[in-house]
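#data-curation
PF: Archiving a pair of folding outputs for the training set. Convention for this channel: one message per protein, sequence first, structure tokens after, nothing in between. First:
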Amino acid sequence: MYKSFSMELAGRTLTVDIGRVCAQANGAALLKYGETTVLSTATASDKPRDGVDFFPLSVEYEEKMYAVGKIPGGFNKREGKASENAILTSRVIDRPMRPLFPKDYRNDVTINNMVMSVDPECRPEVVAMIGSALAVTISDIPFAGPCAMTQMGMVDGEFIINPSQKVWDTGDLQLTVASTAEKVIMIEAGANEIPEEKMIEAIYKCHDVNQTIIAFINHIVEEVGKPKHEYTSCAIPEEMFAAIKEIVTPEQMEEAVFTDEKQKREENIREITDKLAEAFADNEEWLAVLGEAVYQYQKKTVRKMILKDHKRPDGRAINQIRPLAAEVDLIPRVHGSAMFTRGQTQICDVVTLAPLSEVQKIDGLDENITTKRYIHQYNFPAYSVGETKVSRGPGRREIGHGALAEKALMAVLPSEEEFPYAIRAVSETFESNGSTSMASTCASCMSLMAAGVPLKAMVAGISCGLVTGDTDDDYLVLTDIQGLEDFFGDMDFKVTGTHKGITAIQMDIKIHGLTRPIVEEAIGRAREARIYIMDEVMSKAIEEPRKEVSTFAPKIVQIQINPDKIGDVVGQRGKTINEIIDRTGVKIDITDDGAVSVCGTDAEMMNKAIEMIKIITTDFAEGQIFTGTVVSIKEFGAFVEFAPGKEGMVHISKISKERINRVEDVLTLGDKVKVVCLGKDKMGRISFSMKDVPAEA
């Protein structure tokens, strides 16, 4: 049955059509927000997937180029692999929804969002987020929803709910908050050094808006929602846990996990698993789920140790950061390098500087952004966790971690006018045991400073964890969580920032939401930790950005010319600019507003190129003196090239103070001569004189 529902959301109408399309999906909704249209669907398999110990959820966000009236590039002229924005949007939708599915559910679930039209005033990402929650909630798929998501921008200190694409791209805040009816369940933010109090205010303004969306979804569910289907539970039998505890006591399990060495702990767990596998050799059903059972036993042990005994696996205090180390310049010849170590997490970051012509080109639905000048990329090889696996390129996790560190530093980067370079930072994970993205932020900041990038402030990041009990008041926030505390805890709350304020947040949880006191405590803890990291560790390695770029980095000098003269510098079919490049070996970039960037490693050649450009773009006046090359000899005089593509004529009478019969008696092709400009002759050509050049010139 086709039904349509509408609500007013941030001054615009959100319309949801149910039953109009995709009747064979478990749940489907066609959403329109303004003129932005997104089709959201949710489907589930009939049976659980065999042999998996996790919930196989897949979230897709498809950017159709017809949505903005464009034909995709490339030979195929069709959409290819997901863009970085699509991957990041999928992750933002996945993170808050995954914990709301049953923990013992193993049926495959796919949530698909197809962007069909884009109104620049209504960002399709927020429509897809609402549509995903709506499609699952009205379906027969088990789900503890509804949930809702809101985005917040900020201009001149004023919050803007679900901002337009332009405000999102240019404002001081990019905040996405997901909520259930009771609690916040996900936070993602990029910010321009926003104070903690202001950020918390923005988070809970989003939470309030989410409540109106949840009420709207609940109304739709009452009208068209399906009963949730039964499913085969993959929970571990209680009698199996009882048998495990008889063989491995809680005290023995605690002793196995209570160590600050990841490899030792993993060895201990392997020995326990082998011991249990031998004991259950005749029980195939139990052997099939033994790995998951041991995992849950570890989880219960670690959570009890932390929450009840205030003991962390590596013996640290609740607010204590692992041992830290920082250094710069460990890699020779690169433009900038730094390494940051926190416990068993170690990141080496390398920065490369290049001309602005090498910025990354973006082909997506956001027509405000077509290039990206600062690129941060993150790599996570298998050896960093002691595993063997063939590298298949970056996955969604690597792209997400790289984007978070990139977002963390965007607020402190210099403008193109201040620093006319394209910048690429690559974080190589040498060792991983918790929060490599925050280590990447610290390493990248130091590496950029070492490369001579004039950052406005130092940036650091830290991750806080959480273990909760049976009530909202029974919880413990942990500073600087390691891998085990992340796996078995309830939260990974990453915050980056400067001394002044927050630049990025990414919050993942495994429970059904956080209370406001937990959010406030985590943000406060993160501030204390990052200031300590910056003041006591990073600033000891490098206190401020270097004044000059590396010897091995290209040097860039920028000058401004009249935009009307750009054609003169470029020349017909690029002849003039290519001639300058061939003669000097530099790279030249010219923007539409007349900003000319000359890039090279030889200062003399760069100055020569700049001088040529200045000559070409100068309106000629009598008395100007040039040095040029004789490029043509005629009976009546010689032509002198004083800049690529620019020539003037020296009449035979103006070559020498003495009378000459033939030009060749004084000049030959290739001679370097000084000339003074006499203006233009009757034919409009520039006229020069050699004999009238002042003696002091």
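PF: Second:
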Amino acid sequence: MTRFATRARTLFALGPANVLRVALYRAGLRSGLHPVQRVRAPVPQGPFFTRAHPALPGCPPPGRNWVEHTVLFGHLEIAHRLPQWRSHPVTGVRWPRADRPWWEIPDFDPAAGDVKLVWECSRMDWVLAFAQRAALGEAGMLDRLNAWLADWCRDNPPYTGPNWKCGQEASIRVMRLAGAALVLGTPNELSPGAADFVVMHLRRILPTVAYARAQDNNHGTSEACALFVGGTWLEAAGDARAGDFARTGRRLLEERVARLVGEQGTFSQYSVTYHRVLLDTLCLAEAWRRALGCAAFSPAFAQRAASAARWAASAVEPGSGDAPNVGANDGACLWPLFDGCDRDFRPSVQAATALFSGTRAYDGSRHDAVLLWLRVPPAQGTPAGPGSLDARDGGFAMLRSGAALALVRYPRFRFRPSQADVLHVDLWVGARNILRDAGTCSYSAPAPWDRYFPGTESHNTVQFDGRDQMPRLGRFLFGDWLRCDGKCEFSDDGDGVSLIAGYHDAKGAWHRRRVHLQEDKLQVEDDFGGFERKAVLRWRLEPSAWRLDRRDGHIALEAPGLRATFDCGEALAGCRIVEGRESRLYLQHTPLPVLEIELGRPGTVNSCLIWDRA
């Protein structure tokens, strides 16, 4: 009965309209009556692009090398060859039922592995890489681009095989093709082959936008952008098949941004990586609109996009471009147009800031890479620099003091959380990530990693009785979403920046945390109780030579340039440094030390970390 009640509350939190949309979508596919199952399109024939204009001065070299080797998720390099589009790129295993219509193919198959590996090459990073090389005058790159596109179309006839299963995947291909047109300087040209390619994809996307809306995530924004970009491209070329793709895309994109992006800029997916995907999507829509001379988006749309850019700027470490590994992270990067794009968020923030605020986020031409390759003039002016931000629209506090950043996650869930990371603290001093989030590893990871990475154990917070903060109801769904109780307070008093927040979970356990950041010090006060057996406070530490000392209720920890103390009083039952795992890149995880402080009774722990100033 308790689990039934949890499911009922969670379905209500997801929204009855969204639940109904998903149910109707699935019922339609099962019955064979869904409109998307009646869509037809011819196999496009090349050439798709016929010429390349020289790149703008200052464009950096291509970000990923698809000439000498195949690149997966931005970091996995395998021997170069023309991809087998419906097979696992490493093992060569063909996805089950790969010759069947996409709705007859399983979403997950343990024997075949992670479907994202099959999708990765069909996300067409290589389209941008070849277009960049062609714009830089490299011989043969336009022919290679056309040949690969033709091969993809032959091996993925509409709408057969795993690469047609997801409307967002189809949308990414449209956005990559349009991005290549911008890189090549030909957005006002549309060959018959490219037109057929766009129409083939838009016909897959349009009938399932209700399902995309029901997800309340980047499926809706990506599919809306593809419809807008592809539809306006067809309209500009006078293609009679343009229909209402562009109008639907514009309307849906404005509606999705109004719903999914909060006033302080938080995106519905509570993820730094997917926040970048949002920014890159909006930047394409705006750059494309300008290139084709389309009507401007609404002022409300531009305002939310600018807020989303400010949110990202407040979370990004400006010296390295890296950011806290918070939320789901599959390495998604819509514009891999520069070297090191996987962990450098600055060019995306720079582009969004320029397009929606008309200013610069960072000095230095390197950070203009996305703008230059999309042929948008960089903004002028002096950057203001990142500041603290309390994003109450989604439960993020970015505390900044000098070179230090403390990101605090607190429970303000308007949308479903993907990780049990409430009251997690990420600490950065310059590019040094001292207290860390675990990341994602894989959406189809085997046990025990499928539960480890999204779970409470993988975050810098308190875990009660060995369970997650919220019960798991599915692969990507937690139930009984937590809410702030009592006073939730953000303050910047000149002597540092602070946040106070807390919660009670569904089993009666409670945790209240006060975080105070100064230029050379982080202080965290944790009060907790209501558990049955034990509470474990974890601090996931940067890899270093840590020395641990325990005396009575006092713990001391030291590493080069850093000293930490933890006062636990009589509640302390034990402490140790154990090996944990972190995943900064998709499908990869590495060891790191984790300080575990076990408490046997309700109490208070005062943690203080002090670092040497540079």
